[in-house]
UniProtKB/TrEMBL annotation:
<dbReference type="GO" id="GO:1990229">
    <property type="term" value="C:iron-sulfur cluster assembly complex"/>
</dbReference>
<dbReference type="InterPro" id="IPR017871">
    <property type="entry name" value="ABC_transporter-like_CS"/>
</dbReference>
<dbReference type="InterPro" id="IPR010230">
    <property type="entry name" value="FeS-cluster_ATPase_SufC"/>
</dbReference>
<feature type="domain" description="ABC transporter">
    <location>
        <begin position="4"/>
        <end position="243"/>
    </location>
</feature>
<keyword id="KW-0547">Nucleotide-binding</keyword>
<dbReference type="InterPro" id="IPR003439">
    <property type="entry name" value="ABC_transporter-like_ATP-bd"/>
</dbReference>
<keyword id="KW-0067">ATP-binding</keyword>
<dbReference type="GO" id="GO:0016887">
    <property type="term" value="F:ATP hydrolysis activity"/>
</dbReference>
<dbReference type="Pfam" id="PF00005">
    <property type="entry name" value="ABC_tran"/>
</dbReference>
<protein>
    <submittedName>
        <fullName>Cysteine desulfurase activator ATPase</fullName>
    </submittedName>
</protein>
<dbReference type="InterPro" id="IPR027417">
    <property type="entry name" value="P-loop_NTPase"/>
</dbReference>
<dbReference type="InterPro" id="IPR003593">
    <property type="entry name" value="AAA+_ATPase"/>
</dbReference>
<dbReference type="GO" id="GO:0016226">
    <property type="term" value="P:iron-sulfur cluster assembly"/>
</dbReference>
<dbReference type="GO" id="GO:0005524">
    <property type="term" value="F:ATP binding"/>
</dbReference>
Amino acid sequence: MAMLKVEELSVKVREREILREVSFEVGEGEIVALLGPNGSGKSTLLHAIMGRPGYEVSGRIIFNGIDITGMSASERAKLGIGFMMQIPPALKGVRLRDLIKRLSKIYGTDQDTLRRISEELRIERLLDRELHRGFSGGEMKKVELLLLAAQNPKLALLDEPDSGVDLESLPIIGKVINEIVGASDSRAREKRSAIIVTHMGKILKHVRNANRAYIILNGEVKCFGNPADLIEDIEKYGFSECLRCVRVV
Ligand SMILES: Nc1ncnc2c1ncn2[C@@H]1O[C@H](COP(=O)(O)OP(=O)(O)OP(=O)(O)O)[C@@H](O)[C@H]1O
C-alpha cells in the first residue's frame, strides 16, 4: 500500500508556478529519491508535502489514506511527517539539548536512542549550543538528522542529507537514516518511508530500500527508474535525455 500519494500537485509561489501537476507515490517501507537540476522544484515539493504556508496549492496529497492537502504543517507533523531541511534557520536562544528534549516528549521518542544517535553522529559537543548558530554545513546536516530522529516520523522528508558531508560521515548518516526509517530492523511491524533529495546520489549507497528515483525537470516529474541507472544516464547524457525516457510518468 502507498503511504504517500501525490496527485496532480501544482504549486504557485508569488504568482509563479513552480510545480506542475506532479504525481508520484511512496510505498510503505520504501525510500524514494528525487533527482533534478538546481531550481527544478525538489525542495518546493518537500515543503508542499510538509505544508509550508504561503504556497498556493492545487491537486491532492494523501498520507496513509488521509487527505492532508488543506492541513497545517503542525497537523501533518502530528500525523507523522518529519522534515530535514536543506538550509535550516538558526534559532537564537534555543539550545539544541532543550529542543531535543521537547521533541522527544511530544513525539514519545526514546531519549537513550537519541543519545546514542548523537554519539554516532559525533555531535554531543553541539548539544549546549544555540541551534544552528555558527554551525558548519556538515554539523547542520547532522543536527537536522538528530532533530528528525527526535520527531520519530513515519514519513521522513530529507533535503540533500549528503551535501556538505565529509566522506567518513556519509555511511554514518546512512546508518542513522536507516534507523529512522526502520530499515535496519527487518522485524519492524510498522513500515516507515522516506523521500530523499540528492544530487550525486552518494547517500543512496548507504540506505536500504532505495530502489526508485523520480526526476523533476522544470517543476514536472518526467520519469522514474532505478536510482543508480538514472544517475549513470544523467552523468553520461544530461537531464534533457530524461525527456526521451520510456519510463515516463
Ligand atoms: N518563496 C519563493 N519565492 C520565489 N521563488 C521561489 C520561492 N521558493 C522557491 N522559488 C523558486 O522556485 C524554483 C524551485 O526552487 P527549489 O528550491 O524547489 O529548487 P530545487 O530543485 O530544490 O533546487 P536546488 O537543487 O538548487 O536545491 C527556483 O527557481 C526558486 O528560485
